[in-house]
Amino acid sequence: MRRTSHSPLLISMMVLCASGFFQAESDGLKMNFYETSCPRAEDIVKEITAKNVKEDPGVPADLLRLHYHDCFVRGCDGSVLLDSTPNNVAEKDASPNLTLDGFDVIQEIKEELENVCPRVVSCADILALAARDAVSNQFKKDMWQVLTGRRDSTVSKSSEADAELPLPTFNFQALEQTFARKGLTMHDLVVLSGAHTIGQAHCDSFSNRLFNFSKEENMDPSLLSDYASDLKKQCRSLSDHTTTVFMDPDNSGLNFDSHYYLAVNQHKGLFQSDAALLTNEVSSQLVNQLMKRNTFFENFAISMKKMGAIGVLTGESGEIRKKCNVVNN
Fold it and tell me: Which residue among 67, 69, 187, 267 is the active-site one?
C-alpha cells in the first residue's frame, strides 16, 4: 500500500480532540486542589522526588511505569500501591506488575505529607505528581499539568491487573482495544508508547522475539536483524528473567526524549507492541510525526493528562490512606 504523507493539520486536530476529551473527563479534579488544605503538598512531592532521582537516575522510569499501571486498572486510584492480604492478592502481585519499582519513593513522600498535613493528600495524587516531577526533573520545569483531587481506592485485585493491562506481546488491534476501554484513542496509544524512551526491560518480556519465534523464523523478522542478534547476545535464554536492557537502543535509557520513535521506525522497537505501531498506516505516520522532540512533548503532555483522569475517585468516594500500602482501619 502506498503511504501518504501525514499533514500537520491532522495531528493538530488530534491534539484538539484530545484536549476536549480531557476537559470532559476531568470533573472532580482541578489545579492546586491542596492550595488551602496543604499548601506545601506539591512542593514536598517535588523535593523528595528530586532527591530520589539524584540518588537513582532510574526513578523517573519507575514512577512513570507505576503511574501507567495504576491508571489502567480501576483508574488512577492508587490501587497498585496496596499490599496483598491473607484474603486477597493485590494488583502489585499480578504477573505484569512483579517488576514494578518506586513504591519506596511514594511511601517516603506520603510519610512526610502525613507529618505536615495528616490524612489530606491521597496516595493516588502523590503518584500522579511524583511521576510528572520525576520525568520533569531533567528539564527543570513541569512537562505536563497534573490536576489533583483524587482519592484512594480500598480495592486492589491481581485478577483485574492481569485482565486490563496492555502486554508487550500485544498486536496493534489488541493495543487499540485495550486503550479504547480506558477512553484513550489510537493517538494516545502512539503518544504514550513514547514513555519507552526511558527505563529497562527484563529479557523474558521480549525474548519470545529472539528464540524460536515461529516454525519459519527463529527471530522475529519485524525486528532489525543486527539489533536482534545483539539482544540475543545479552539475553541468555527464552526464560531469562534477570538480565535487563534499555528499552530505547542507541540512547542512554535515562534521557526523556523522542528518540524512541526513531528506534521504532528503524525496526528497533524492543517489544512486539512497539513494532505493532508500524503495522497500522495512521499510527505509523504518527510515529514519523512524533520523532520531532517538541511535537512529542506537546502531545505527551495532553495524553498524560487524559490518562491521569481515568476512573478517578473524587468527592466522598474512596478514602485518603494514612499509608499507601494498606487501607485505613
Answer: 69
SS3 102: coil
Residue 265 φ then ψ, to 5°: -65, -25
According to the 3-state scheme, what is the secondary structure of 170-200? CCHHHHHHHHHHCCCCHHHHHHHHHHHHCCE
What is the tens place of the pLDDT at every residue in 168-225? 999 999 999 999 999 999 999 999 999 999 999 999 999 999 998 887 888 999 999 9
Cell numbers found for residue 295: 511535537
**Using one digit for the tens of pLDDT, what is the confidence trace for 133-174?**
999 999 999 999 999 999 999 999 999 999 999 999 999 999
Question: Would you call 298 exposed, middle or buried from its count of C-beta atoms within 10 A (0-12, 13-18, 19+)?
Answer: middle
Angstrom distance (rounded) from CA 215 to CA 223: 17
Query: Taking the C-alpha atoms of 149, 165, 268 and 229 in order, what is their torsion angle to the nearest 10 degrees?
Result: 140
What is the CA 147 to chain-centroid distance, rounded? 17
272 and 169 Cβ atoms separated by less than 8 Å: yes
Residues 135 and 256 sit within 8 Å (Cβ to Cβ): yes
What is the greatest pairwise CA distance in the chain? Answer: 64
Q: How far apart are CA 165 and CA 205, in angstroms?
A: 14
| Dihedral in degrees, nearest 10, Cα atoms 196, 197, 198, 202 | 50
Active site residue 69: yes
Whole-number Å distance between alpha carbons of 183 and 264: 25
| CB proximity list for 323: less than 8 A, separation 6 or greater | 107, 110
Say if residues 312 and 25 touch (Cβ distance below 8 Å): no
